[in-house]
Amino acid sequence: MEIVRADILGFCAGVRRAVSSAEKALSERTPSSSGTVYTFGPLIHNPVALSELAERGLEVLESTAISSLTPVDTVLIRAHGVPPVTDSALRATGAAVINATCPLVTQSQKRAADFARKGYTIIFAGDKNHGEVIGIQGYAEEAARNQGYDFRFLLVRSAEEAAALCVPDGPLSARPCVLLSQTTFSIKEFERISEKLKAFIPGLEIYSSICPATHERQDALRRLCAQVEGVLVIGGKNSSNTNRLFTTAEKLCRHAALIETASEIPPEFFELERVGITAGASTPDSVIAAVEERLKENGRR
Question: What is the mean pLDDT of residues 285-301?
Answer without folding.
Answer: 89
